[in-house]
Amino acid sequence: MSAEGLERRTRNYLSNNVPQIQEHGGFFEVQDVDDETGEVTVAIGGACSGCGIAPMTMNAIEHRLPDEMDGVSSVKVVRAGGPRAAVMPTKTAEMESMEEYRDYSPPF
To answer: Which of 26, 37, 84, 90 has its CA 20 to 30 A from that of 48?
Structure first.
């Protein structure tokens, strides 16, 4: 499968299965795709950057995408940089390390 095909399928998966990102003022973009290894990097930003459940959303995407999409072996979710960077980076970074978020499974 081509990287372009894998990128398109990843975008479609996120649009259809994690609509909360865009519905709540956030955005995602597929930053990198390695079609040989099946590794995908997704960036989230906008309202997601300061959202209290962003670490849970990131974790859910990292775990569910490889399980539910053929051709994807691993997913890395990162924060968008530049003008779309985190609103509260210190808070969201702190939240990612909280024990409460490790096993949480959001309803999407």
So the answer is: 37
